[in-house]
Amino acid sequence: MTETSSQTRSAVVDQRYVTQFREDGFTHVPNVLTPEEVAQYRAAALAEIERSGVVAGMGMKVGVTAVRITKDAFRNNDVLRGLARHPRVGAIAEQLSGISLRVWGGETLVKSPGDAAPTTWHDDLTLAPLDGRLLLNAWIALVDVPVERGCMTFIPGSHRRPEPFRAPLTAAQENPESYLFDTYPGLTWDRRVTVPLRAGDATFHQWRTGHTAGGNTSDADRVAFITTYTDAEATYRPHPGHQWADLEAGQLPPDEIYPRVADFA
């Protein structure tokens, strides 16, 4: 494994979180942000949603949701860029993974009251235009997210399921509601764990871990920010017909746009 940055070699969080992340494919770390940071980032997140938010699907023409999401907030919004490059969050991500990472993305997601439809069961790797040893998300709650507001549910250990390593993108596009269980039928019977969060908490999950999020039956917005990390040496792997204009197949993402955690943690 590639060495992590010098700061992340010391323990940022207790070893039990590292163990759960590696065995179950996810972990819940409380108090990743302070209350003051939560208030600052929530205000910026809601303002950016009002300015540039769009209703998003799962990506790559997979599924439909009513969740509003920003577009490249980690590049275009100074405050949210600071959250995507948050030293503590990045240091935790590197400690959990045990390898050097870079930021691949960072976006605000808002699920409105009355959006009772759950997010489709999925894994993130199926849609990922990357080749690397490990990809992971930090899902940071900017408000309290109890079950009624649409918190995340995971299938523990699903990142260690058998081949194929990735489900076919076409399967996800044609059957977004069932592709994960169609491709890996054994997951149908596996245990699920639902993880309510307090504002400032985060879940970290590997991109091969099956997960969903519940509907929002509460009377307030569910506001979260997702920072996406990749293996620092991961290369761009475009899906057919989905070539990004600023990257070429096999290219290492440029550090000035997709910064290494070692440069800010």
Number of β-strand runs: 12
Q: Count up the domains.
A: 1
Q: Would you tell me the structural class of the helices and strands? A: alpha+beta
Helix content: 10-25%
Task: Give your account of this protein's structure.
- This protein has 265 residues and is α+β, with helices and mostly antiparallel strands.
- It has a single domain, classed as q2cbj1_9rhob like domain (Jelly Rolls), CATH 2.60.120.
- Helices cover 25% and strands 20% of the residues.
- It contains eight helices and twelve strands.
- The chain has helices at residues 6-9, 15-24, 35-52, 73-76, 78-84, 87-97, 169-174, 179-183, and strands at residues 26-29, 54-55, 68-69, 101-111, 130-131, 135-141, 152-154, 193-195, 202-206, 211-213, 222-231, 235-236.
- The strands form three sheets. It has a seven-stranded antiparallel β-sheet with strand order 1-9-6-11-4-3-2. Strands 8-7-10 form a three-stranded antiparallel β-sheet, with no helix packed on it.
- The chain starts with 5 loop residues before the first helix and ends in a 29-residue tail after the last strand.
- The relative contact order is 0.24.
- The model is unreliable at 1-9 (pLDDT under 50).
List the topology elements.
Blueprint (H helix, E strand, L loop, with lengths): L5 H4 L5 H10 L1 E4 L5 H18 L1 E2 L12 E2 L3 H4 L1 H7 L2 H11 L3 E11 L18 E2 L3 E7 L10 E3 L14 H6 L4 H5 L9 E3 L6 E5 L4 E3 L8 E10 L3 E2 L29
Antiparallel strand pairs: 1-9, 2-3, 3-4, 4-11, 5-12, 6-9, 6-11, 7-8, 7-10
Gist of the model:
Keywords: Dioxygenase, Oxidoreductase. By secondary structure, the protein is α+β, with helices and mostly antiparallel strands. The chain has one domain (6-239): Jelly Rolls (Sandwich).
